[in-house]
User: What shape does this take?
Amino acid sequence: MNPSRRLRFPGWPAASRLGCFLIGLAAGRALGRRVDKEADTVPASRQIVHHASEAIISADLGNIIVGANPAAAGLFGTSVEQMLGSPLERYIEAGRASRQGSQGGPSEFFGAGDGRAGRRATDYTVTGLRADGHRFQLEGSISRANDGTPYYTVIMRDVSDRQRVQEKLSRSHDQLRQLSAALQTIREEERTHIARELHDDLGQILASLRMDLNLLQQTAGTPTDSLRLMHGMEANLLTAITSLRRIASNLRPRALDEGGLYFALQGLRDDFVERYGIPCSLLADEAELRLDDAASTAIFRIVQEALTNIARHAAATSVTMNLFRLNGDLLVTIRDDGVGIRPEDMEKAASLGLIGMRERVWGMRGEISISSETPSGTRVDIVLPVAGHLV
Assistant: This one.
């Protein structure tokens, strides 16, 4: 350093002058490190945004996109270069705030009038627009910053799959509520029906038997009269026994207890053919249908409900039922040649027969598939794990 240009502090001791110099030097170095650190932070933060798994978009108050990461470009089916400089409405539908005369900015897309996602005050559900025009549900979290120029940043997540699952769960809950209500109604109707049959059939027959017995005790007529009364009483007893068996069979088929599932299905098939006049084939092996009571009852009711649906809705001219075991599973296939089932019919909340079939299958941890046949008809395929139900 040129001695003529040295800094001088008149009247200061040499030690004080040296201390001031060192303090200034340290402050300069600290300031330099701070500037270098801030310069390094900007690229680091950009790297974090660039590699983030969630979609991130930055836009100015005029709703022009000024920043986007590859996750955002992938979410909307485009590229970062195409997104930069584009209006935000190209990728996110404007909400009610825009339609009600918003002054611009993020409120056009994330206004309080649109549905909140419900987790944080800054979370909103909006509709996204992919490059191919496909609409899907987004959940966005918005924040505002001011780095010389005001802008806002939105972190977005595709929640369309979650929304579909929620809608399916909601529909399932509605169906279960209706099924529960229907079961209560059916239970009361069955009780009323049984009470009426007991009163009309057995009640009247037993009353008639009592009158005949009184006449038989009081009569002083010929043996022919007594014999005639006894023949009438025998006929009434046979009628009472038949009615009792019919009522009991409607509640639970005797064949399930006496012969097993195979013979119960045979009786069900014969009753279906006799009642509706529709030919029905049963392809099964008795040895493969030796199951415990719980599995036998569930399978019987599933097949019974399928035949009831065919009789009511299919307008079929023939039905085929096929049951066989394979690797610990019972495969059940029921086919008809009727009008076929529509996809929307399978999702109706009022389709309680189908719901009941599904619930019985799922109760056995099985799988059920219902589809339309080609050229016409409906096919029901059921897989039931029965390894733990063999007898």
User: Anything to note?
Assistant: Residues 268 and 304 are 7 Å apart (CA to CA).
